[in-house]
Predict the 3D structure of the following.
Amino acid sequence: MKGGRKDSKGKTDKERAFSSALSIILILLNLVVIYELYYASYLGLAAQAGWAIVSLLVSGLVIKRLKGFPGGYGFYLLGTKRGLGLIDRTSKSHRGFWNAMPMWGMVLGFGLLSRLMVRKGISNRMYAFGIITMLLLTYVATFYTIGFLQFLTLPHFQLGITPQSAVQYANPLLYNLTPIAAIFIVTLVFGFSGYLLSLLLLNTGTILFKTLLYANTAISGNPQTTLLTSQIPGVAPVLPGLTLPLIAGLCSFVIIITIHEFSHGVLARIAKVKLKTIGMIMVGAIPFGAFVEPDERAVARLDADKQTRILAAGVASNFIAMSVFFALMMLVAILFVPGIYSVIITATIPNTPAYGVLQPGMQISSWNGYTIRNYTDIATASKDDKPNSTVTVVTNTGTYSFKAVASADNASRGIIGINAGDEVGSTLYDRVVYFFYSLFVITFALNFFIGIVNLLPIPGFDGWRIYKVNIKSNRAVKAITAIVVIALLINFVPWLWLL
C-alpha cells in the first residue's frame, strides 16, 4: 500500500514519521524561544511572560494536532503504559514503608488535627514522629528556602542573595522571633496546610489594607502609588525558562512530578486499584505536571482510609525528596560552591579613596592579607577597617593600598568606597558545580512549595480530595474552598501594577 499501512487514526507510516519529526522541531524551537526570552529582561517581565506563554500554547496546540494527543487549550497529555510494571513491582516490596509514609504525610499536612481527620491508621508512634519531623522541616523551610530566591527572576524577589549569604542568613537570631514562634505554633496545630493558609490569609489582609489606604490617598488628591508597588504578591508564576533557569528548572520539575505521581501509583496498586496509564501533562515543550491514571470508579469504592493513603502519598513523597535535596544542597554549598565564585568590583563611590583607581570588572583576590573567595569573605576581612587605617587590596591587575575614610552611616567604620558582587567562574568545573547547586536548591525548595500548595482545598489538588474524603460536611468543604480561591486571587492582584 502506498505510504504504508494506516493506523487507527488513518495515518500512514510516512505521515506519522513526518508529524513526529515536525513535533520534535517545534519542541526544540520552543525551548530556544523560551531560553532567549528568559534573558530578554530589556523587554520587561510582562512582555517576557506574554511571549513565552503564547509560544508555549501555540506550539502545544500544533503538537496536539499533529500527534493527536488528548488535551486542549495548548496542553496535551503524553501517556504510556511503560513504567506501570515498575510501579506494580514497587508496591509489592517494603509494604511497611509504603503504608506508613502516607500517614506521616497526613501528620505533616494537618498537624495535631490530623488525628481528628484520620481516626484510623495513624499510630501513636507515627503521630509523634510526624509532629517532630514536621517542626524540623518547618525550621528548614523557614530559614533555608530563602536561597531559592536567587534563581527566581521576578520583581520584589531579587534580594542579592548568594549561596554564601543564603547559608549565612539561615540563622534564627537574624529574625524577629515573635512571628517565627507564631509560624511554629500554627504549623504544630494545623500542619503545613495551616502554615500556608495562615501566610496566604495574612498577605491577603495586607494587600486589602494597603489597597484601602491607596484609595483613601487617591480620593484626597494625593495618591501614594508606593503603597501598591511596595506590596509583594502572595503567589508567583514559577516556570522553567520564564522565571527559573530553563535546564535546571526543567530537570527539577521532572524529578518532583515523577516522584509525586509514582507514589500515588504505588499506593493505588497496594489498594488493588488498576492503573491505566502514566505520563506527563505538557504545555508546548515544558512539563506542566504528571499523572497516574487509576480506575477512578475503583478508587471511589475504597474506604476513606485507603483513599486518604493514596492522596497523601504524593505530598509525603515531596517532603521526603525535600529532605534529600536539602542535604545535597548543603553538601555542595559548603564543600564546593565557595571555590567557584570570584568577587568582582561593580562600582566605586565618588569622593572615596578607590574612586578612579579601582575599576568595575576588576577581580578581588585579597583584602588586607585575607584570601577573598566570595563576598562574605570581604565582609569578614573588612569588618575591622577603621578610618585612616591602611587597606591593601590585591586584584587581577595589581596591588593597591588606600587610607580608609569614615563611612557616612557609621563614623567608626572605615571604607575605601567600592561596591562588589559574586560572579560564577567561567571554567567547566565552575559551571558544572553551579548547575548542580542550582538544581539541588530549586528541587529542594519546589518540593516544599509544591507539597504544601497541593494541600490546598482547590479542585484538582490532592488537598481538596483529602478534605472531601475526611470531612463529612460538603458545605464546610465548599466554604473553605471559596475562601482559599478568593485569597489566591487577591494575592495575585499586585502583579497587575508590578508587571
In short: The CA atoms of residues 84 and 273 lie 12 Å apart. The mean pLDDT is 87. The longest strand covers residues 275-283. The domain at 350-416 is CATH 2.30.42.10 (Pdz3 Domain).
